[in-house]
Amino acid sequence: MTQTTIVLNPKRTEYGAEDAGKKSMTVAQMIEALKQFPADARIVVSDYYEYMYAPVKVSDLHEHVEEE
Prior knowledge:
The chain is α+β, with helices and mostly antiparallel strands.
């Protein structure tokens, strides 16, 4: 059986997390998008024009709160 790998390749266009967040998909939209893939698929993030890849782990998820 072949393992499916999902590659997230976001384009870096914003300097602030708040600005990027305004243009980003929601958690609900991400869940819906991921439903098209097998449940055992692995997710990685590409960087440097797909020269390097990083595994995505639960510990990588952080909530960013913008200071006023």
